[in-house]
Amino acid sequence: MAVDSKIFTREYAEEQDKQDPLRHLREEFQIPSKADLKATSLKDECTSAKSPLLPTEHILSIIDAHADSAALLLLPGIQFYTGQYFDMPRITAHAQAKGLVVGWDLAHAVGNVPVQLHAWNVDFAAWCTYKYLNCGPGAIGGLFVHERHAPAAQGTVSPSAPKVEEEVTISNGNGAASSDYRPRLTGWWGSSKASRFAMTNSFEPIPGAGGFQVSNPSALDLSAVAASLSVFEQTSIAALRQKSLKLTKYLEDLLLHTEGDKPYTILTSQDPEARGAQLSVLLQPGLLDTVMEVLEEEGVVLDERKPDVIRVAPAPLYNNHHDLWRFNECFRKALTKAVQVKADKDGK
């Protein structure tokens, strides 16, 4: 899962669609079907042509410009392409002051940087567990819903309940009002355990985020999450963040200050507080395929985003400074070969 902000430029969004077509398909089919929510989609707003990063002040200005017509603001905690770590508490507070509901996609943030969703008054957030939580592809996702959105009074909710923007009082099918209920996608796994197998065709939401669950997760997926969290329990996110800051700075120093040609630039912010455990490196055109081939031969595992970006993510839970030194040595070897291969092709 990787969701981009609703305030990105159309040109930026089109580029992101190339990098993450699933995101485009998901939003293309979901947003029109929820037109009554009046949530903004992608806006034709200007960002810097010199940098893909979005300054906080720019984000706040776009919120101000569209606050009268927008109902929902959805952003990534860390932007998957650039590695930018957004100022979540400030943006949340500003958007909510304008009357917007604020949600965060934490796909690249959970297990990577500290987040305090309740303390920051975030309305809701969602994330996957296959990235920094190391649970593998297809593992279950996670959900946070602020407690002010999640109460469920005693009673049941009919499947034909009206879907409106605010909390509504729902009839239990006998004409009696029974439950104050935040509209949602309802599923049996979010219904009360006490009545889940009663087969009454009524929905009795579990109080809290549990009431927003739709279907039961795979037992095998849950075992992967449990194993991962048992490792995280041996340390803390605060400790991992401190190690991450040191590792990412060391990686940055290697990339910037190693002698020799540098046919690349770093897209990710140089501000340690504005990034997580990731540096996105933009290669000169025509180098990516050869670079990835050599790195794979050397046993270096990282991510590519065509046409020219590699994402290097020193995960503090298991990477160390020697790993980064070795990556840099292999990266130099890969660049040397890639430049030569490109020169040979260009000479033909």
TrEMBL record:
Coiled-coil regions listed in the entry: none
InterPro entries for the chain: Aminotrans_V_dom, Kynureninase, PyrdxlP-dep_Trfase, PyrdxlP-dep_Trfase_major, PyrdxlP-dep_Trfase_small
Gene Ontology CC entries for this record: cytoplasm
Aminotransferase class V domain ranges (all copies): 68-154
Pfam families: Aminotran_5 (PF00266), KYNU_C (PF22580)
Any Gene Ontology biological process: NAD+ biosynthetic process
Protein name: Aminotransferase class V domain-containing protein
